[in-house]
């Protein structure tokens, strides 16, 4: 999962990203949008690839009954996820090396493929695990300098992710482009100016209050324009 080395990725879950994913406005909206996209899909089992500390699984299972499993590159993230959701099954998986030897009705993959040099192999491995639906969420448009510091090797060009998914034999069902104007470009430009300082680490009362205000502001973002892209595909 270049360019992030395993040790640095493990350390990030131990010290930097857990509260950001749980309380940060972007992570909360990601869960909200995915919840709405998958709400009416006929699925019985779900795999979250790149599950991190398990916040997406925790959020989805309350409104979308199914059997949830998770997979991640990081044992530190998986340790947190297993503690928080002990009745779900979790796997150590590197998408550049292979896929689990089973299929799931719905495979989710959020904030992962932009970190992987060989994303075509990673997306092909996601498709191998897809029984009915695949939902990939990532960034498109202009990449800011701070994003390279957290391991992005690309932001996708418009249409690029859809092309790479259809190359696996899946068909595009729905595309959501979210974020204009308050997340993208305004918030992302602010993060670029500050070097994304203040987004990582522990979230105390003040930071949670700021995050809540941003979450509320982001409710006004468009679902038809923006740099956060959600692509839902299905098996023919």
Write the layout of secondary structure elements.
Layout: H1 6-15, H2 18-23, H3 25-38, E1 45-49, H4 55-63, E2 67-72, H5 75-84, E3 89-92, E4 104-110, H6 119-128, E5 130-139, H7 145-149, H8 160-166, E6 171-178, H9 182-194, H10 205-218, E7 228-234
Parallel strand pairs: 1-2, 1-4, 2-3, 4-5
Antiparallel strand pairs: 5-7, 6-7
Helix pairs in contact: 3-4, 3-10
What does this structure look like?
- With 236 residues, the protein is of the alpha/beta class.
- It has one domain (6-234): Rossmann fold, CATH 3.40.50.
- 42% of the residues lie in helices and 20% in strands.
- The protein is built from 10 helices and 7 strands.
- Helix 4 (55-63) links the parallel strand 1 (45-49) and strand 2 (67-72).
- It starts with 5 loop residues before the first helix and ends with a strand.
């Amino acid at each position: 999962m270049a360019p992030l080395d395993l040790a640095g990725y493990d350390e990030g879950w131990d010290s930097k990203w857990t509260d950001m994913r749980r309380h940060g406005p972007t992570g909360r909206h990601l869960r909200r949008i995915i919840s709405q996209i998958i709400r009416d899909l006929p699925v019985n089992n779900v795999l979250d690839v790149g599950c991190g500390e398990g916040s997406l699984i925790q959020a989805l299972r309350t409104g979308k009954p199914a059997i949830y499993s998770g997979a991640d590159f990081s044992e530190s993230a998986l340790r947190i996820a297993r503690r928080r959701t002990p009745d779900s099954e979790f796997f150590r998986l590197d998408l550049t090396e292979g896929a689990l030897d089973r299929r799931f009705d719905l495979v989710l993959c959020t904030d992962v493929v932009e970190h992987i040099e060989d994303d075509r192999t990673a997306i092909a491995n996601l498709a191998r695990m897809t029984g009915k639906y695949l939902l990939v969420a990532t960034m498109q448009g202009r990449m800011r300098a701070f994003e390279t510091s957290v391991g992005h090797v690309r932001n996708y060009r418009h249409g690029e992710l859809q092309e790479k998914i259809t190359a696996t034999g899946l068909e595009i069902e729905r595309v959501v482009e979210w974020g204009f104007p308050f997340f993208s470009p305004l918030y992302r430009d602010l993060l670029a100016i500050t070097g994304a300082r203040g987004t990582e680490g522990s979230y105390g009362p003040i930071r949670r209050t700021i995050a809540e205000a941003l979450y509320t502001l982001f409710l006004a973002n468009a679902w038809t324009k923006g740099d956060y892209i959600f692509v839902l595909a299905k098996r023919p």
